[in-house]
TrEMBL record:
The chain holds residues 93 to 469 of 520 of the full protein. The keyword Oxidoreductase applies. This is Oxidoreductase molybdopterin binding domain-containing protein. It comes from Pseudomassariella vexata. The lineage of its organism: Eukaryota, Fungi, Dikarya, Ascomycota, Pezizomycotina. One of its GO terms (biological process) is sulfur compound metabolic process. The keyword Ion transport does not apply.
């Protein structure tokens, strides 16, 4: 993996896990561009990075489709067969901001798999590829009772001395809605190796985990995939279920990402000399086809809120984040708690505290993001 980290990633990536490689970009830089440059896009891997020769590469559509097919990259890129699409879509890992849950609940979470992410396991890219719906249509559609599509990645990983392949599934209705893409380009460049070269799925508005990289097979099936990534990871539990008494069947399979936001500058524990105003910048995102409509920040831990002016919210793309900035009036000196909360177009907003959304496997930390800054006026 390190060969590709050095080749494809910025030198100052924050290495969240060394192996398997997981990394996120420095906070301030992530919110400098509405479209995240490839070298700054977070990387989340369960195992190593498979070497795939693109000219020998084929991928199979199998299982409960009327005419199973083997396709090449050239087939997918043939615009007589499939219309090509380019779309700006945000990918977010359900582990984003897990560090806040770890700080309050050390020892929770599945430490073999879960990475201690900060606020940077999110990004927006312009993906180019084809709609998976069109590919399934070319296979004659699904056989009657097929309802899910299972994605097979060419990477493998170890867990408790066993070796697994990366396998997940998405419901057919998601594909039918044209919200799943097979992508071979990221921001106008061939997909970087570390991001799934030569082909990956991009599932709009769902947790990043469903966007399978190094895709080599798609199988139509009746029920959700039985693979461990689908059935044992990426589950959300009620607070009554702790790490010791878990049954996986108690977990809810996370799909849509909830509304969330983060302050990316200033940084936590930063000292700021100012003349009555401090500039804050960050991101806001909502999954499931929703988008942020209102972002508010507070300089006193959440008593008084200031709304980000609408013109300071970046362009609204369906299925992408919005970046924001605001000048916050600050009189007080000393340690202050800054926080942010966002509403989406379904008028959902964020839980107030980390503990309101605690779940033992430490997914989806979507509470108000809080930092402490030292104000010198
Ligand atoms: N696909 C494969 N084959 N193997 C993986 O480990 N990780 C998933 C998903 N697809 C993963 C994968 C997870 S959990 C996330 S959040 C996204 O890829 C991250 O995509 P990125 O590394 O391109 O940012
Ligand atoms: Mo993830």
């Amino acid at each position: 993996s390190w060969k590709y980290v050095l080749q494809e990633k910025s030198a100052d990536m924050i290495h969240v896990l060394q192996f398997p490689y997981n990394g996120e970009p420095p906070r301030t830089r992530l919110v400098e561009n509405e479209i995240t440059p490839n070298k700054d896009f977070f990387v989340r891997n369960h195992g190593g990075i498979p070497e795939i020769n693109p000219s020998a590469y084929t991928f199979d559509i199998s299982g409960l489709v009327k005419n199973p097919q083997r396709l090449t990259l050239a087939d997918l890129k043939n615009e007589d067969l499939f219309p090509r699409i380019t779309k700006t879509v945000t990918l977010q890992c359900s582990g984003t901001r897990r560090i806040e849950q770890i700080q309050q609940y050390p020892g929770d979470g599945d430490e073999l798999i879960n990475a201690p992410w900060g606020e940077g396991a999110i990004g927006a890219a312009k993906w180019t590829g084809v709609s998976l719906k069109k590919v399934i249509k070319r296979c004659g559609g699904l056989v009657d009772d097929a309802a899910h599509l299972e994605f097979f990645g060419a990477d493998s990983y170890f867990k408790k001395k066993k070796i697994y392949n990366y396998v997940v599934s998405v419901p057919w209705r998601k594909v039918k809605a044209n919200e799943v893409m097979l992508a071979w380009e990221m921001n106008g460049e061939p997909l970087p190796k570390i991001h799934g070269f030569p082909l990956r799925a991009v599932v709009f508005g769902y947790i990043g985990a469903r966007s399978c990289k190094w895709l080599y097979e798609i199988r139509a099936i009746k029920h959700e995939s039985m693979a461990p990534v689908q059935k044992k990871e990426y589950l959300y539990y009620t607070p009554q279920v702790g790490k010791q008494n878990t049954l996986y069947s108690n977990g809810f399979s996370i799909q849509d990402m909830p509304v969330s936001s983060a302050i990316m500058t200033p940084l936590d524990k930063e000292q700021i000399v100012h003349e009555g105003k401090i500039k804050l910048r960050g991101w806001a995102y909502s999954g499931g086809g929703h988008w942020p409509i209102r972002v508010e920040v507070s300089g006193d831990g959440g008593s008084v809120w200031y709304e980000v002016p609408y013109e300071k919210l970046s362009t609204k793309y369906f299925h992408a984040w919005r970046l924001w900035e605001i000048e916050l009036p600050v009189d007080a000196e000393g340690w202050l708690e800054f926080c942010v909360r966002t509403w989406d177009n379904a008028l959902n907003t964020q839980p107030t505290y980390v503990r309101s959304a605690w779940n033992w496997d430490l997914h989806v930390t979507s509470s108000c993001h809080r930092i402490k800054v030292y104000s010198m006026n």
